[in-house]
Amino acid sequence: MRLTSLLVLLALPITQTLAQSNVCHPDDDQREAKLLAFYTGPLTFSPGGNVDALGRGKLRLGFEATYVPEPSAEISRPERCYASNKSEDTRLSPVFPRPRLALGLGSGWVLEGSYLPPVTVFDATPYLASVAVSRLASIGPAGLLLRAHATFGKVEGAITCSEDALQLVNTAEPCYGSEKSKDTYKPNMLGGEAAITFVLGSRTNGYAGAGYTSLRPRFQVGFRDGRPGVAYDSTRIEVDLNRVSLFGGALFQVSPLIGLTAELYSVPEDVTTFRVGASYRWR
Predict the structure, then answer these.
(1) Which terminal Cβ of the chain has fewer Cβ within 10 Å, N or C?
(2) pTM of the full predicted structure?
(3) pLDDT mean over 178-205
(4) Residue 96: which CATH number?
């Protein structure tokens, strides 16, 4: 999977017109902010269908794949941080994969984690991690799931101008130069969720809920333009946003140890996506 394509803000034509300031703070309703928010949906560490009880000391290993939609052409154009209004083909990967590990703590508490190791893929190196803590309590025939989650870390590499994007033909076009960019992206997400769980069948449990997430993404450009006298572009793009989410899904137990999961996840202001996965329980 091309990890760089998941961070679409990284397609901004940074070399076409230098930013006026070293730090850019787009407004909440401007395109750069909307573009950043659009891609936090697929990266959010939601329940992903894993809403069953897990006893003390029990472990569950899972893997999920999230569909990554393509943003509209309008929000793919920079508005504040760069003067260019050229629409870029983001060429997004359609899937964001993620492993999951959960540990039962007892009394309905579960600790979850996910990690993408620093393996360079298409000139980008991720150091991304997610954690969550949740508690499932019975309320009659249903259950109440309360959950807090966070996603943090960074992605380093030639994100804005990879080797195949470099060109020395037109100084007015993006990525004019001979050195790949050295960029850093930090997603910085922290949120909470509440969901009602219920039985759909002898082997199937469903759930529906809502969440609130604080987004503090940070992006650091690092590109040396090939034109003499042009300053090194170290522009930072910083956005502070808050988003409400809605979600629902199901867990199907193929066997006592193996489960299949599915979830529809929506941030009404930005994006709707879905996740599918599988898990294995042991100990």
Answers:
(1) C
(2) 0.85
(3) 92
(4) 2.40.128
